[in-house]
Amino acid sequence: MLNVYFQKERSLIDADVNFFEERIKQYEELLKIEHNENWWNEDMDIKQLCKYFNRKDITVRKAIRKMYDSGFGEYKFLVNERVVISKEGVEWICKNIFKQKYLELLEKYKMELTELYIEEGYPYDNFFHKN
Asked: Is 108 part of a structural domain of the chain?
């Protein structure tokens, strides 16, 4: 945790994301689980994105604009005159704009792995000597 809270190179949320990604990787290696968690398995229109990210229409549209301006215009397309973002675009927006949602997904997955870790009989309170 010191690596998350007492560093100045990146934002707190980026440090948290990195911490959980590293912890998940350690769990997967120890439990011999292949990482195949895919939280973005469908394309979404703006209304769905608003609900998924719990954001207003204008905020989602700004996120789409940032994605588009970052060179990922191929993730945006029209279906029946509605703007739709591909699953790859939803992932990009989640990881780059609405990072809190990504962190929530990581935390949930990490807890699932923690339960598996405990079920396997490993001592949780001595996790990799890093608690």
From this structure: yes
